[in-house]
Structure to design on (273 residues):
């Protein structure tokens, strides 16, 4: 769908001219990528086919999440080795990194995290910004799971969109449903309420947000290559890092997946509203 065989971590926004821009990361699986992980962009008129735009949006970062502020500026939150940082732009193409911390660390979660990342941000009607992000624990959930780390979600709030105060755990993955793995959260405004989409070993889930907490997750998409064999507990290439956009009466679910040849590509699935 995007003319790039090493694209991952998509985030799609609608522009004032009716076009759609996708921000995405360059997969570390790309040959000779080294430690260089630029955030790039692609443009579309129909939301189905995106053409890469020239240049680099951010020189080094992953998991971009972009929102349009009420003052007309664009704000990007993304993950680096330092954690979660932000940048601003007036046109969505040229970005300036904002200095200073995004998260204020607090200890009430009782977690030993070695990294945080994969942020998603929305603004409530009262003006408060709410961020959900992944916390990484350097510990395998159990001996059967594929990944060496445990991932769960935390959430934080901000009045100015710049400095966020941690509220606590949003969704805990340390249970039989998620088996220690959640990643790629994405806020979606859905018929007047907020839903959080994300992915785990079984596929893509969503949960509803009531303003102070999160409901039970619902599995909504297993991917185009998912097996129906109940003995397969962990799909080899589950759909990951979802982002959604409503175009007309159709919802588009964009996600990345890894092919058997090691390349990361971005696909989409649709649902009539």
């Amino acid at each position: 769908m995007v003319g790039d065989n090493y694209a991952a971590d998509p985030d799609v926004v609608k522009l004032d001219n009716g076009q759609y821009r996708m921000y995405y990361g360059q997969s570390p699986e790309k040959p000779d990528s080294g430690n260089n992980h630029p955030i790039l962009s692609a443009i579309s008129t129909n939301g189905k086919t995106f053409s890469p735009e020239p240049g680099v949006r951010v020189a080094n970062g992953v998991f971009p999440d972009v929102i349009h502020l009420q003052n007309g500026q664009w704000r990007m939150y993304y993950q680096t080795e330092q954690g979660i940082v932000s940048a601003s732009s007036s046109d969505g193409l040229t970005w300036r990194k904002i200095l200073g911390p995004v998260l204020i660390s607090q200890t009430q979660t009782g977690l030993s995290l070695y990294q945080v990342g994969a942020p998603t941000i929305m603004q409530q009607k009262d003006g408060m910004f709410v961020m959900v992000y992944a916390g990484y624990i350097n510990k395998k959930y159990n001996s059967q799971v594929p990944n060496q780390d445990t991932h769960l979600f935390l959430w934080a709030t901000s009045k100015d969109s710049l400095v966020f105060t941690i509220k606590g755990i949003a969704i805990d993955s340390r249970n039989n449903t998620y088996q220690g793995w959640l990643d790629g959260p994405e806020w979606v405004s859905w018929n007047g309420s907020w839903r959080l989409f994300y992915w785990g070993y079984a596929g893509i889930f969503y949960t509803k947000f009531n303003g102070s907490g999160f409901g039970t997750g619902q599995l909504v998409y297993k991917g185009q290559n998912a097996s129906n064999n109940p003995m397969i507990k962990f799909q080899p290439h589950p759909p990951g890092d979802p982002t959604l956009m409503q175009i007309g009466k159709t919802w588009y679910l964009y996600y990345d997946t890894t092919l058997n040849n090691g390349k990361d590509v971005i696909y989409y699935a649709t649902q009539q509203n």
Q: What stands out?
A: The chain has a mean pLDDT of 90.
